[in-house]
């Protein structure tokens, strides 16, 4: 099953509650947290996440593009996040952090920048509920999809299958009606889409259309055995 997670980075920040309701058919609401240190941009923090979690029934998928996620990630679980993603490049103790996120009741996920290979983290996979492959450089919305990430997505799906894990494989960056099928064919099953959803005339329909494209590509290429 393909999961579509609209990114509120592309939404109107003055109307977040309304923008969340506009995509209520989505599986999760993707929330990018940036600190102007790990990435050159600054977005929202714990108080806004807490308010947003009360304004929508759609579970929140937090992507922490921040330094020191070991300190901050647990606070986002307490603020209402259902899934928290930290970056492999920023975490000091990723196994301990993943276990703490899970212990607090959320799904634990780890993200990799485009230049970070998956292979050194193979032994960590059983500690995670999801792995996020960035298909653009983190820090800004609206970037063009990097096709060179498709082999990395395939290798990651192979590792997940080899270990018999029931974990999700998410892609984030430049996901649209033009690119989502390639991601699904490569092995992704969770798709973050920002401008492709919030830039559409009907965001809810855009979510449905993206899911339909991803599921059709998945059925043709590698089945739904995972």
TrEMBL record:
InterPro entries: Aldolase_TIM, Ribul_P_3_epim, Ribul_P_3_epim-like, RibuloseP-bd_barrel. Binds 1 divalent metal cation per subunit. It catalyses: D-ribulose 5-phosphate = D-xylulose 5-phosphate. It is an enzyme of class 5 (isomerase). Pathway: Carbohydrate degradation. The active site is at residues 32, 172. Its cofactor is Co(2+); a divalent metal cation; Zn(2+); Fe(2+). Belongs to the ribulose-phosphate 3-epimerase family. Catalyzes the reversible epimerization of D-ribulose 5-phosphate to D-xylulose 5-phosphate. This is Ribulose-phosphate 3-epimerase. It comes from Streptomyces lunalinharesii. The lineage of its organism: Bacteria, Bacillati, Actinomycetota, Actinomycetes, Kitasatosporales. The gene is rpe.
């Amino acid at each position: 099953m393909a999961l579509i997670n609209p990114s509120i980075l592309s939404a109107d920040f003055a109307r977040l509650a309304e923008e969340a309701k506009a995509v209520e058919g989505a599986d999760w609401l993707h929330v990018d947290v940036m600190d102007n240190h790990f990435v050159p941009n600054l977005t929202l923090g714990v108080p806004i996440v807490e308010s947003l979690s009360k304004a929508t029934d759609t579970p929140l998928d937090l992507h922490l593009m921040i330094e020191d996620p070991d300190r901050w990630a647990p606070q986002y679980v307490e603020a209402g996040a259902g899934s928290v993603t930290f970056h492999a490049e920023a975490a000091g103790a990723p196994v301990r952090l993943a276990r703490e996120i899970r212990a607090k009741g959320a799904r634990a996920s780890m993200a990799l920048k485009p230049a970070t290979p998956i292979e050194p983290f193979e032994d960590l996979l059983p500690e995670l509920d999801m792995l996020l492959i960035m298909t653009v450089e983190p820090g800004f919305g609206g970037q063009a999809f990097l096709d060179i990430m498709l082999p990395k997505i395939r290798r990651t799906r192979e590792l997940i299958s080899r270990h018999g894990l029931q974990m999700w494989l998410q892609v984030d960056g430049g996901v649209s009606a033009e690119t989502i099928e390639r991601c699904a064919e490569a092995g992704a099953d969770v798709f973050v889409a920002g401008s492709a959803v919030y830039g559409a005339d009907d965001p809810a329909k855009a979510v449905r259309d993206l899911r339909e494209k991803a599921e059709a590509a998945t059925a043709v290429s590698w089945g739904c055995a995972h």
